Amino acid sequence: MSFKSAIYPGSFDPVTKGHMDIIKRSAKMYDKLYIAVLTNSSKRCSFTIDERIEMIKKCTAHISNVEVCTFSGLLAEYAKSIGVIAIVRGLRAVTDFEYEFQMALTNKKINKELETIFLTTNSKYMYLSSSIVKEIARNGGDITDFVPAAALEDIKNRLERNDKNGL
Ligand code: PNS
After folding, report:
1. Looking at ligand 1, which residue's alpha carbon is closest to its atom 17?
2. For residue 82, which of 27, 135, 6, 167 has the smallest C-alpha distance?
């Protein structure tokens, strides 16, 4: 086992420029970066797993060492099954810390080989989250500055459709 590869897990509902910043930086740190698009059982997602995967694939098509994946079950078990021992997560502010600390310790309890590597967010994106993007879009605001250009239209179309259907 080595730190040559890492896994960056998240809900990415939808992917933001903050996520892209973490993806680009960690793809430089590791030979291979798996982006795991997952279901967070405590969140209700607006985009389907397939939509989120497609958007991240489009946004990372130019990064050759990235592979987008998904699975059901535990992250710690999946990481073991593909021989990865590094989990990458972005930290925006102190408010993220307790949740991230709990996840990192739980993952380590399940699989003691695992290390969670925290990247501090780029200060430009400290305030940014997928929920903020959805909130702005649903209220008619412009999300161009917040989401990667490659996913902008998909995100706008989907949120408009959700709105019309009262979702
Ligand atoms: O972007 P998010 O919603 O903060 O990501 C959370 C996610 C999806 C990484 C987390 O819920 C997760 O790892 N889910 C997979 C199931 C699992 O292993 N749960 C235990 C982790 S404490």
Report:
1. 74
2. 6
pLDDT digits (tens, 9 = 90+) for 109-159: 999 999 999 999 999 999 999 999 999 998 889 999 999 999 999 999 988
DSSP 131: H
Q: Does 105 sit in the ligand 1 pocket, CB within 6 Å?
A: no
| Ligand 1 centroid to residue 72 C-alpha, Å | 11
From first CA to last CA, the distance across the chain in angstroms is: 44
Asked if residue 110 has its Cβ within 6 Å of ligand 1, the reply is: no
Which band of pLDDT confidence, cut at 50, 70 and 90, is reported for residue 103?
very high
CATH classification code of 5-164: 3.40.50.620
Residue among 90, 93, 100 nearest 15 (CA): 90
Asked whether the whole model's pTM tops 0.85, one would answer: yes
Residue 166 has pLDDT above 60, yes or no: no
Q: Which residues contact 53 (CB under 8 A, 6 or more apart)?
A: 37, 68, 70
39 Cβ contact list (under 8 Å, min separation 6): 11, 45, 49, 72
Residue 6 CA, ligand 1 centroid: distance in Å: 15
Phi first, then psi, for residue 11 (nearest 5°) are -85, -35
